[in-house]
Amino acid sequence: QARAPGAADTRRAADEYRVATSGRQEMARIRLLARTGRSADAARRIVALFPNGAPSGALGAEYYQIVANGPGGPDAAIAALRRAVAADPDDADAALGLAKLLNQRSATRAEANRLAWALARRPDTDRTEAMAVWRRVLQSADTDPAYLDSMRAYLALVPDDTEFRDKVASMEQQRDAQRRLERDPNYIAQQRGLQALARGDLAAADPLLAQAARTRAGDADALGGLGLLRLREGRHDDARALFARAASLAPDQRGKWDSLARTAQFWGLLAQGRAAG
User: Is the pLDDT of residue 5 over 90?
Assistant: First the structure.
């Protein structure tokens, strides 16, 4: 320190030494605040504890994680960690901290995944920590098919992870079922019919949606698609009946189909009133 008493690195080193000695109790208090949801207090106190800026290494990554969860949000912390990684690509602690923060938003999760995947393969990282971060990223991705290859790569390294083994198997089944569906001529007719309906081309939509409803009678969307056409055509009773059948086939979408059935009933009663008048 005698050679460069005012240098930023020297001041940060002094902060780190103080935290490791006289400041240990305050750091423990900050961690407790962060764990118990008092993020603003934790962020304020850690900034006060390190008046010369973020420390280096794992403690620096922890600093940014706590600051990011404070009132100012993560943007400044993410930018600082990006700069740290760009300046020193070997700084695995900064890269891990960056991956954790990027995972908090779906818009940046793909970048978090790439970082964590790369860190898990690096020999100079704490592999247990890197794999744990990668696992959290993939858990956050849930069943997004864009992450299927990453999940397979993760499983290649941790083949006994039953949660991801089951998830990957389920996602592959869904993908295969979707591919089969997209080759089904009746499903293709349904999609083309809905496109024609969206364009206002009722004549083109009619045979396509009728075909889909006839051949895919157990599919709520197929029946509902024809119901939408009948509603546009003014065939309100037919539309209401189709929406009611769709509601019975898809309990999780009952609200949507019941609402459309009520709409068809309303317009039907209105049309009857006009005709009677």
Answer: no
